[in-house]
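BUG: 3D viewer hangs when loading the predicted structure for this chain

Environment: internal workstation, default settings.
Expected: structure renders.
Actual: progress bar stalls at 90%.

Input used:
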Amino acid sequence: MASYAKSFNMVVLQNSSLWLLFIFQFLIIGTASWDDYTMADDFRHDCGKVITNSKGGRVKAYEDGAEDPFNCQLTFTAPDANKQFFLYFDKFILKAVKTDCSDHKLEIFDGDNITASSLTGANGLCQLGDDTDLPQPIRTTGDSVTLVMTRNSATSRAQYRIIFSTFKITTGDCYKCKDTDDLCIDTSLVCDGLDNCPSGSDEDGGEGGGCQDVGFIKVWIIVVGVVVGVIVLILFLVCICCIWVICRRRTRPKASASTGYQTQGAQMQYSGQAGPESPPPQNPSAPPHENDPIVPQKK
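Structure tokens produced before the viewer hung:
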């Protein structure tokens, strides 16, 4: 029983660290209100998907650097036929060896398939040599966009982040980015924690910024979320402590308050600390009546 309880305690303590990490990630990610999509060559990918009614979000790339050929295609369509897509790069690492980028590249098409016109030229996007420049922002002419990442023989990893947003040229029920004359993004993208405008004006809490009116409410939502998460974390730690204490108590040997004997398995052992009324221990190998008190005889 003792060994089982000890191993149980070790499992609980080890798993508790994993739960703490999970809760921390929940607190950080839970406050974000944008959608993330991944172009990767493992189980964490969205390759082959067609995301409909998309208003905006972030596309991330990840590769394990293997030499196996890899192709990932991801398509987005706007919720309104009158809207277009605006994309800009927050990070871009896509190393290629061949000058035509045929071994490692990213292509973006102005439509819902690869037969649409290319927005990234004939060779697509890649980095040659020591090139570290970010690609220029991209705008579509229609309500859909398709991204295709191809690796034929490259061994370096692809790592990039693309912020994309739906917009319309006409003003109205949308937020007009400060740094552009005609970029008006959906109001649901304003003050969501992600810079959908190139200058980040949609996340600015100052005068004319997107967070000027709703920033206070957003802050309170985040604060309440963090407080609730901390309470859940405290309750979880209390439960872990209670389980640990209960298991510790079950592994302790029990002693009798009146006799001073301790039970261990099927044997009885005297602890040497008898109670106030406990008799002295007797020799079980002694002859009968040898341990009886001597009673004086009457003459």
